[in-house]
Design brief:
Pfam families: adh_short. This is NADP-dependent 3-hydroxy acid dehydrogenase YdfG. By secondary structure, the chain is of the alpha/beta class. The chain has a single domain, classed as NAD(P)-binding Rossmann-like Domain (Rossmann fold), CATH 3.40.50. It is 44% helix and 13% strand.
């Protein structure tokens, strides 16, 4: 733990859904919190609830992570706060629609909130975590990091970035006590579906997880030392097989010779 500070967990996107779920569970685990989102009134209600329930000290930080000035402000706050020992990069947005049909603002929001802000906030905490040889970054990706679907092509791409970035980071901090966990939930019952062309009610109920189940599974994964957590996947060996195939394929690319099927006149 840093100095004499009580550990502080920072949760972005804590005004609803998965982020609010993390805030509740981390408060119960004894963390003080810094909660980031645009809807400050919701964060304040949650702060009051957690203060009463657990004595949690909560800093409410209103910020629009789609805006450069706000990202920079949170970066500075994180970099200058050695009590922070956990960053949950949860804030995210999903704008559904064909790639050509989305507005430029929709596309910018997904790229900025899901990719740029997550990257910059991670970069802000990482040097302190490494210097203190402690700390955890929890990045919320999605099962769509593994499988792009039409109507969410850009969203899927942003989540594939979160997965790839997090895996690289895991290699970077290997050998230290700094942890990087990437979480790949499938459908979770939250407001992210509200007002979209795929409202929650249209999903088969049996594929939808509750926020509490998802957060509890993810924290159990963190406790188990997992780098990659798939809360709804019963057979953990599926990931091992997938990752082994991915690595075999990558290894096969490390070959300076064009494959025979790409050479004119040669059979595949
Ligand atoms: N629900 C699901 O099925 C799944 C969700 N996820 C991911 O989980 C994460 C949380 O989403 P979920 O809980 O489902 O959805 P919610 O819509 O309930 O929560 C999204 C959170 O992100 C915050 N947020 C959105 N835009 C901004 C912004 N511009 N600046 C700051 N905060 C912002 C919202 O706060 P505010 O509006 O107050 O700013 C809110 O707290 C996302 O990264 C999402 O991609 C992954 C897989 C499945
Ligand atoms: C399609 C979505 O927006 C969903 N939140 C997911 O990540 O599965």
């Amino acid at each position: 733990m840093a100095g004499n500070f009580k550990p502080v967990a920072v949760v972005t996107g804590a005004s609803s859904g998965i982020g609010a779920g993390y805030a509740r569970r981390l408060a119960a685990r004894g963390y003080d919190l810094a909660l980031v989102a645009r809807r400050v009134e919701r964060l304040e209600l949650l702060a009051r609830e957690l203060g009463e329930a657990h004595g949690t000290q909560v800093e409410v930080i209103g910020a629009d992570l789609g805006q450069e000035a706000d990202i920079a402000r949170i970066e500075q706050w994180l970099a200058g706060n050695p009590a922070v020992t956990m960053l949950v990069n949860n804030a995210g947005t999903s704008r559904m629609g064909g790639t050509g049909a989305l507005t430029d603002a929709d596309v910018a929001a997904m790229l900025t909130i899901n990719v740029t802000a997550l990257t910059r906030l991670t970069r802000a905490v990482l040097p302190g975590f490494v210097a203190r040889n402690e700390g955890a970054v929890v990045n919320i990706a999605s099962a769509l990091a593994l499988h792009s679907l039409p109507l969410v092509s850009i969203y899927s791409g942003t989540k594939a970035y979160v997965l790839g970035f997090s895996r690289g980071l895991q290699e970077e901090v290997a050998g230290t006590n700094v942890r990087v966990q990437v979480v790949l939930p499938a459908a979770v019952a939250t407001e992210i579906y509200d007002g979209t062309i795929l409202p929650l009610e249209q999903l088969p109920p049996e594929i939808v997880m509750s926020v509490d189940d998802m957060v509890d599974a993810s924290l159990a994964g963190l406790d188990r030392g997992e780098g990659i957590t798939l809360p709804s996947v019963a057979d953990g060996a599926l990931w091992d097989a997938y990752d082994a195939a991915r690595f075999e394929l990558f290894t096969a690319t490390q070959n300076g010779t064009p494959a025979a099927r790409y050479k004119s006149g040669q059979a595949a």
